[in-house]
Amino acid sequence: MMSIMRFGAAIVRMTLAVVTVAAVGCTGHDPAPNTASASVGPPTTTATPSSSHSSPAPVYPADVPLTGHNVKPGEKPPLYPAAAKVRSQAGANAFAEFFMRTLDWMYATTNPAYPKHYFAASCGLCRGLTTGMTKTMALQHYYEGGRFTVHPAVGTQIAPVTAPADYCASIKVDTTAATVVDSTGKIFNGEGAQTGLGLKMCMTMQGTWQTTYLAKS
Fold it and tell me: What is the C-alpha to C-alpha distance for residues 143 and 171, in angstroms, rounded to an integer?
């Protein structure tokens, strides 16, 4: 059981009832871009065309849930944006916004599958967040509220980050108030709304972008 994603004074974090999952990204003082390779999560499922008589339907990785307790009526998972298919700062910014929306979808569905496709092993916070959600899912608990509003990302320098990075972006997120509920409807804990939560995200392009670093800015 865990509360909504917290961006504390030191780092973004997710709190469990009995275990705090916290991960701090690596920092250093090397001003040069670090483009070393990084291991990545599961590969992204490629889109397949639909019938020639209709428009192609949106295609997501096969393990991504299409609904959940916290999904709004008619809401669909975010699609990987066309703008993020370019290896450039603009492409990285578009990916940063998309990645935060996959985390939002994680809270909507209490399922960490979507963001797992888009981060590398070097992103400790990404691992911590998805591990925490896996535990919540195993307990058959779910969220009400805690949804994100993702603000536009802007480019920022890589230094002092030492994780592999082609580009970095600065992004802000607002979250609504949230509660954690069990299968019987019992509320375990809750957290108020938060606004203007600033993050620094770095990424490399390896077919698709992969988040290599995520931390409170």
Answer: 24
Write the CATH number for 129. Answer: 3.10.450
Bond preceding residue 160 cis, omega within 30 of 0: yes
**Rounded-to-integer distance, Cα 63 and Cα 143, Å:** 19
Q: Which residues have CB under 8 Å from 53's CB, separation 6+?
A: none
**Number of structural domains in the chain:** 1
Write the single-letter amino acid at 109: T
Rg (the chain; Cα; Å): 17
With vertex at residue 3, the alpha carbon angle to CA 18 and CA 185, rounded to the nearest 5 degrees, is: 95
* Confidence tier at 17 by pLDDT (50, 70, 90): very low
Which uninterrupted H or E stretch holds 199?
strand 194-206
In a domain, 175, yes or no: yes
More confident residue, 112 or 52: 112
For residue 140, is it within any domain? Answer: yes
Q: Which domain holds residue 116?
A: 1-17+88-217
